[in-house]
Fold this sequence. Notes:
By secondary structure, this protein is of the alpha+beta class. 26% of the residues lie in helices and 35% in strands. It has three domains: 3-91, no CATH class; 100-124 and 322-393, Phage tail protein beta-alpha-beta fold; 129-317, Sandwich (Jelly Rolls), CATH 2.60.120.
Amino acid sequence: MKEEEIDQLIQDESFLNYCFQRNKEDIRYWENWLFANPKHADDIASLKKRVLLIAAAAREKMMQQHFSELQERIVASNNKGRNYLRWSTSVAASIILFLSVGGYFILSKNQKPPLATQEKLVRDINPGSNKAVLTLGNGQQVVLTDASNGAIALQGNAIVNKTADGQIIYDAKKESQTAVAEQVINTIVTPRGGQWFVTLSDGTKVWLNAASSITYPVVFTGKERKVSITGEAYFEVVHNTAKPFRVQAGNMLVEDIGTAFNVHAYADEPSIKTTLVNGSAKISGKEEAHILIPGQQAIVKMNENAIRVKSVNVEQVVSWKNGQLLFENEDLATIMREVSRWYDVDVLYRGDIPNRLFAGAIPRKSNLSEFLKILEYENVHYTLDHHTITIRP
């Protein structure tokens, strides 16, 4: 089996159910699969054994040390095993994630036992999904979730298409980029609990996170390609030296130099952050500019001009795009802001906010109840009333 197949398999809830013998349907499915694919029997047996070993180690260590220390043990054990079982961080995280009701959270210090009880959910809340509204140049609004596949609008010299998998693609007519087309501006807005993907007329791909927006010309004319965003967006830019691509996010301007990058610019966050995934990007403020290299993040505090650059874990920053809520040493308020946006819930605080740092992950496809079980496990008191979570002492 190829390494990428191993990675996918170990993150498959059905396969983990088989390994832990937790679901009769999944157990039966994998037994039938092995019967039909006997050539993979040895690989699956070895993989199952390693999953169980790591699970045992995780249970023993989870309450004693940070996740990274357990990672070092896992990596060390891999060096002694078969070459194809080279485990990534996401793979190991998936196993530990599976051990604790769909997700794990590890306190940096002073772990406490879980609460004996928490207020039960009246009803569960589903995670976010593909939801967005497109505002056309004439002000007409199109609910993209409800729009039929195929051409949904003609904007200037560009046809707006919706694909079967929900993407929006702008198909601009070549050799017809006129000054009139430049004035046609579209905006896509995702609500709380929504996300969307769009391919702009130049081929640049944009992923929008929940409670975000992007405003852009339907056809890029002139000497630059400029868009503006609020909230969070991930860009894979088609580079064109003669016509640079620029993103305005609050008081930060991002210019691509052959780039994939993430921009985090929510109004309720203390700063705007741009993280470079690959290529190169120029970050400009009112008073200074910096060139980022992959793995660096530029930070500008709200209502300030100074740009601070630091190295970050790119996997954590773009985890939302890859279907995870992943945190590294984050305070509870920061985590709850992201939860609020993705699950479309309000968060209130009664008394002091727990002064602890958390690290952990949960799949974005998980219902809210799975996340709340993690709060319960970490001895964080809460109540849920309809779509309002109240954190209390």
